[in-house]
From TrEMBL:
<feature type="transmembrane region" description="Helical">
    <location>
        <begin position="104"/>
        <end position="127"/>
    </location>
</feature>
<feature type="transmembrane region" description="Helical">
    <location>
        <begin position="539"/>
        <end position="559"/>
    </location>
</feature>
<feature type="domain" description="ABC transmembrane type-1">
    <location>
        <begin position="368"/>
        <end position="558"/>
    </location>
</feature>
<dbReference type="InterPro" id="IPR000515">
    <property type="entry name" value="MetI-like"/>
</dbReference>
<feature type="transmembrane region" description="Helical">
    <location>
        <begin position="327"/>
        <end position="344"/>
    </location>
</feature>
<feature type="transmembrane region" description="Helical">
    <location>
        <begin position="71"/>
        <end position="92"/>
    </location>
</feature>
<feature type="transmembrane region" description="Helical">
    <location>
        <begin position="20"/>
        <end position="37"/>
    </location>
</feature>
<feature type="transmembrane region" description="Helical">
    <location>
        <begin position="406"/>
        <end position="429"/>
    </location>
</feature>
<protein>
    <submittedName>
        <fullName>ABC transporter permease subunit</fullName>
    </submittedName>
</protein>
<comment type="similarity">
    <text>Belongs to the binding-protein-dependent transport system permease family.</text>
</comment>
<feature type="domain" description="ABC transmembrane type-1">
    <location>
        <begin position="63"/>
        <end position="256"/>
    </location>
</feature>
<feature type="transmembrane region" description="Helical">
    <location>
        <begin position="435"/>
        <end position="460"/>
    </location>
</feature>
<feature type="transmembrane region" description="Helical">
    <location>
        <begin position="184"/>
        <end position="204"/>
    </location>
</feature>
<keyword id="KW-0812">Transmembrane</keyword>
<feature type="transmembrane region" description="Helical">
    <location>
        <begin position="133"/>
        <end position="152"/>
    </location>
</feature>
<keyword id="KW-0472">Membrane</keyword>
<feature type="transmembrane region" description="Helical">
    <location>
        <begin position="481"/>
        <end position="503"/>
    </location>
</feature>
């Protein structure tokens, strides 16, 4: 039986008798059928264009719409991750361009280009379709970067003996992907997927409530429901909306993420069994379901055929010759196609930047420095508490069972909902708005580190833990010789995405409207927000480019070197 078939089976045992899992499967099928009928037939009676109803009866429909947008963005993110990360990891020539480009892309303030994307799409597609596509693109840009970095980190830290074995057995691209790369990266991809969904909820809310002047681009969904409830001061509707959001997150944890965590435990690199494996009631229900086994048996021929077709479509090729032959002409072709457009746009940008005075450039430099200090402070605070908690969750299954859904709920609650509370508390502190800005940036930073640390701790082989226990290492020795080296690749991945999140969060942390007043402090985020509000496009361009250049430089001088250190020294060999 080939590997794809084994992966597809998910460890399902052979059963002929009905199982309690069948009841769960039938219940979910009925629920999804009802939701489909509600979306297809019932929605026009409740929703009329951009008008948002606050009736609790529409919340299942709104939750379905929001999850659908999140799922579409996630699928798009995974496709981008596999293609982009694989090219960056396997093609040295492409890596020189793709990694710096990835640094630039993840440092671009996401909320600043939503109007551009939306107005561009509305000129091509019907308005409602354009708004839906724009929301999916916005969520995609919030989900994809940490997934791509995690996939790249996994590909570059695969143990050398496994890479050599794949070369000796002449695995083609598809065989290498299904038997080596995807299993090795499964744990970190699943935990980063949780983080992507948690971060995606924030930008989903922003996309669903977007308005531009007299143009109303709102979308029916949980975000629009919560905003409408807040605008009308309907406390009951706010609680109904937040309750639905929490229930949705818990349902996704129980039906998707916890089963995936339990399934991915088989891919941990270890020579002995773990003390306690992760469990999932839904995963056990699917494994024991006669209906699920029957579906797998029906689809097995299709899986075998697809596996054979992909193996023939992507046969073995010499890695060195492939890298030299393909990467070169692809890069030349892309460069030739993009050069005229880049030259024209660069010329137009230069004309706009020429309007910025020396004094303004000096203020931008000072603002960048101020924001950099806040980003460093937020990262230091985040690392101080996420490192011990992440290791505890990743190494203690009982603790993970209780804290995993709590962490997901906390990470998924939109940070904007907490801004008023944070401001009320922080403005009374000695630091004032500076302290509030750091706390707000922390809300957009800490979860990237936490989820990556949990993934790294979960991937530590059990035999290495037993060895550390047999050697009677002290707690500090265990951290210095086992835990920190094993976490190094994951820490770098979490830090680089957390850094980008903190820089993006500076736009809303350094320039806020509260109590009918506009509060701002010196920072590049405040300059971007103020330039946007004033319509000062030259200053907006100069500030945005300055942020991109600084973030990319930091990534190149700091995080990229740490990536290289992790690739060379911290392999599980």
């Amino acid at each position: 039986m080939n590997t794809l078939t084994r992966l597809f089976q998910l460890g399902l045992p052979s059963r002929r008798l009905p199982h309690w899992g069948d009841a769960v499967i039938f219940f979910l099928l009925a629920a999804f059928l009802y939701l489909g009928l509600r979306v297809g037939l019932g929605s026009p009676e409740v929703i009329k264009g951009p008008e948002i109803s606050l009736s609790p009866q529409v919340l299942p429909y709104y939750a379905g719409l929001s999850v659908r947008r999140m799922a579409a963005a996630y699928v798009l993110s995974m496709i981008f991750t596999f293609v982009y990360g694989t090219l960056a990891a396997n093609y040295p020539q492409a890596r020189k361009i793709l990694l710096p480009l990835l640094d630039v892309l993840q440092s671009v303030p996401i909320l600043s280009f939503l109007p551009v994307v939306l107005l561009s799409l509305s000129a091509i597609f019907p308005l409602r379709l354009a708004v839906e596509l724009a929301s999916i693109i916005l969520i995609f840009t919030s989900q994809v970067w940490n997934l791509t970095f995690a996939w790249y980190q996994s590909l570059t830290t695969i143990p050398r003996d496994l890479q050599e074995a794949a070369t000796v057995f002449r695995f083609g691209a598809w065989q290498r992907f299904k038997t080596l790369e995807l299993p090795f990266a499964a744990i970190t991809l699943i935990w980063n997927s949780m983080m992507s969904w948690a971060g995606g909820w924030f930008f989903l809310m922003a996309a669903e409530i977007f308005t531009a002047g007299e143009r109303d681009f709102r979308l029916a969904g949980l975000g629009a429901y919560l905003q409408e409830a807040a605008n009308q001061g309907d406390t009951g509707a706010i609680f109904w909306g937040l309750g639905t959001l929490v229930l949705t997150i818990v349902a996704l944890d129980q039906l998707v993420w916890r089963p995936l965590v339990a399934w991915s435990d088989r891919f941990k690199l270890q020579l002995v069994e773990g003390e306690s494996e992760p469990t999932s009631w839904f995963f056990e229900a699917v494994r024991g379901s006669w209906l699920a086994n029957s579906v797998v048996r029906l689809l097995r021929p299709v899986a075998c055929w697809l596996d054979d077709w992909l193996a023939r479509r992507f046969p073995w090729r010499d890695p060195e010759a492939r890298a030299k032959a393909r990467a070169s002409w692809i890069l030349y072709l892309l460069g030739a196609l993009a050069s005229p457009w880049l030259l024209y746009e660069g010329y137009q940008a230069g004309l706009m930047l020429s309007r910025i005075s020396f004094v303004q450039w000096k203020l931008i430099a000072l603002a960048v420095g101020a924001t950099m200090l806040r980003v460093a402070g937020a990262l230091a605070i985040a690392l101080a508490w996420t490192l011990p908690l992440g290791v505890a969750i990743g190494t203690n299954r009982k603790l993970a069972t209780w804290l995993q859904p709590v962490v997901q709920i906390a990470a998924s609650v939109p940070a904007t909902a907490l801004f008023p509370v944070v401001l009320l508390v922080a403005l009374s502190l000695p630091g004032g708005l500076n302290a509030a800005a750091i706390l707000l940036m922390l809300l957009g930073t800490q979860w990237y580190l936490l989820f990556n640390i949990i993934a790294g701790a979960s991937a530590i082989p059990q035999d290495l833990r037993y060895t550390a226990a047999l050697l009677q290492l002290s707690r500090w020795q265990r951290w210095r010789t086992l835990i920190l080296p094993a976490l190094m690749p994951y820490l770098v991945t979490g830090a680089i995405t957390a850094s980008g999140g903190a820089w993006n969060a500076s736009i809303v942390a350094e320039y806020v409207r509260f109590g009918g007043e506009t509060l701002q402090i010196r920072g590049i985020g405040a300059q971007i927000a103020a330039a946007t509000a004033a319509g000062d496009y030259p200053l907006l361009l100069a500030a945005t480019l300055s942020m991109i250049i600084v973030v990319s430089t930091i990534n190149r001088l700091v995080w990229r070197r740490l990536y290289q250190l992790a690739e060379e020294k911290y392999h599980l060999d």
